[in-house]
Amino acid sequence: MENLIEIDNLSFSRSGRLIYDNISLRIQKGKTTAIMGPSGIGKTTMLRLMGGQLKPDSGDIKFKGESIPNMRRKRLFEVRRQMSMLFQSGALFTDMSVFDNIAFPLREHTNLTEDLINTVVQLKLQAVGLRGAAHLMPSELSGGMARRAALARAIALDPELIMYDEPFAGQDPISMGVLVKLIKALNDALKLTSVVVTHDVTEVLTIADYIYILAEKKIIGSGTPAEIKNSDSPLVQQFLQGLADGPVPFHYPAGDIRQAFLGSSL
Amino acid sequence: MNWLASIGALTIAKMGSFGRATLMLLGAIIAKPQFIKNTPLTIMQIYVVGVQSLLIIVVSGLFIGMVMALQGYTILVSYGAEGSLGPMVALSLLRELGPVVTALLFAGRAGSALTAEIGLMKTTEQLSSLEMMAVDPLRRIIAPRFWAGMISMPMLTLIFSAVGILGGHVVGVDWLGVDSGSYWSIMQATVDWDKDVMNGVIKSAVFGFVIVWIATYKGYDSIPTSEGISKATTQTVVYSSLAVLGLDFVLTALMFGIE
């Protein structure tokens, strides 16, 4: 199977804190790959590294065999036209209507006439079920609608790769169901390669073809959803079952509580 | 030796910040011009930073001109020189008060708004999403705001000075009885186009450059939290005001100090 993205021996640190320690992973073309892990582990950072917004300390990230960290800015911008990202907040432009938000990448990167742009935008909005909301401003949308509008914008230029940053976070069950259906349908219909960063276990197990679980600066488990479910790693099982305590401790590292309360008289 | 290390660390941090600000500015303004795409964006920003600042500029200009005439008259009349009220008001406004007060008001009204807007765009990931859409935020967001500020500031300064001169006329001529003919004719004879009007315009262009540079950089470099944006907005107003006052002295010395 051909890989769209290959990450080799990647290490990354920010403000002196090590986020990734020598990790390698593969994103297969045409598949949905999920990157899971506890909050604060740097899952979004992984997407930013793939998109070339951050540079690794060491190691390489290849998109179609081309090294992203070593690309010149102009080439990076060319490559980014083939990828797209759905941000957690949606990141819609607040001074533009939903229609103009989706038309934005088309107006920036194509020479299509306004008639054609109108047709494409209507089609994209129809795909996410928001054709009737084209005239609304982002502030008038609910959280789920904003994310769907952002999704329509993300697929406006028909990218090869789409990166989802916590697409299900803070969604009600109906919105979550809609997003799961959309991600799956778009992946199948448009033959996209998807990378989903999330910690919503149930949803991911239904849409992912392959899963990586990140914790403690490393990949602690990877495989198909079935392999992950049957993993014998206690860390993976703690994450899947949502146990409060385990290899990832409940308590943030601290001294002995008796020492803290009773001081040196202990 | 800790204090020495602190001074060193602060210097390195400030120089780093200055370097990043310069890179941001160069990235925004040194590029192949895209007139068709950028002109409407710049016009839109001229409306936001320039036209929407008009009210505060006009009202301030009017009152400052009126106060200048009132103060000037009480001094000049004791020498029987109240006929020179016109040039006194005009020269003070064109050379100093126009550019400086407009710049201070512009920093408070438009500079702070620019910083907050760009900072919030960063917080809500709009700048990141532009980058991921292969649109350079420096050219799409920073450049139009920069040029709009550069164009608006001299215009606002001229409007401020013109309204101030009219305010001086209202108080000096209409209220205190200075002869209208001498108010205008002595002003016309005294004010020099290059030395007074154009030097004021040059000053305001320099102030505009500094204010929008500081404002856009502080927004672009802000920490994407509510506290970070609040701090960046405050810094924009403080740094811009200090820079304007400091530069005013330097420019005045260069323009008028060496005869």
From TrEMBL, chain A:
Domain of life: Bacteria
GO MF annotations in UniProt: ATP binding; ATP hydrolysis activity
Keyword list, A-Z: ATP-binding, Nucleotide-binding, Transport
Pfam annotation, one family: ABC_tran
Keyword rRNA processing: no
Keyword Signal applies: no
InterPro entries: AAA+_ATPase, ABC_transporter-like_ATP-bd, ABC_transporter-like_CS, P-loop_NTPase
Domain ABC transporter: start-end pairs: 5-241
Protein name: ABC transporter ATP-binding protein
TrEMBL record, chain B:
Keywords: Cell inner membrane, Cell membrane, Membrane, Transmembrane, Transmembrane helix, Transport
Membrane topology recorded in Swiss-Prot or TrEMBL: Multi-pass membrane protein
Keyword Acyltransferase included in the entry's annotation: no
GO molecular function: phospholipid transporter activity
Keyword check for Transmembrane: yes
InterPro entries, per database record: ABC_MlaE_roteobac, MlaE_Permease, Permease_MalE
Residue ranges of the TM segments: 47-70, 155-177, 197-216, 237-258
Signal peptide: none
GO cellular component: ATP-binding cassette (ABC) transporter complex
Intracellular or extracellular location(s): Cell inner membrane
Subunit note: The complex is composed of two ATP-binding proteins (MlaF), two transmembrane proteins (MlaE), two cytoplasmic solute-binding proteins (MlaB) and six periplasmic solute-binding proteins (MlaD).
Family label: Belongs to the MlaE permease family.
PANTHER family linked to this entry: ABC TRANSPORTER PERMEASE PROTEIN-RELATED, PROTEIN TRIGALACTOSYLDIACYLGLYCEROL 1, CHLOROPLASTIC
Classification via NCBIfam families: MlaE family lipid ABC transporter permease subunit (TIGR00056), perm_MlaE_1 (NF033619)
Function, as annotated: Part of the ABC transporter complex MlaFEDB, which is involved in a phospholipid transport pathway that maintains lipid asymmetry in the outer membrane by retrograde trafficking of phospholipids from the outer membrane to the inner membrane. Probably responsible for the translocation of the substrate across the membrane.
Protein name: Intermembrane phospholipid transport system permease protein MlaE
Organism in which the protein naturally occurs: Paraglaciecola hydrolytica
Lineage: Bacteria, Pseudomonadati, Pseudomonadota, Gammaproteobacteria, Alteromonadales
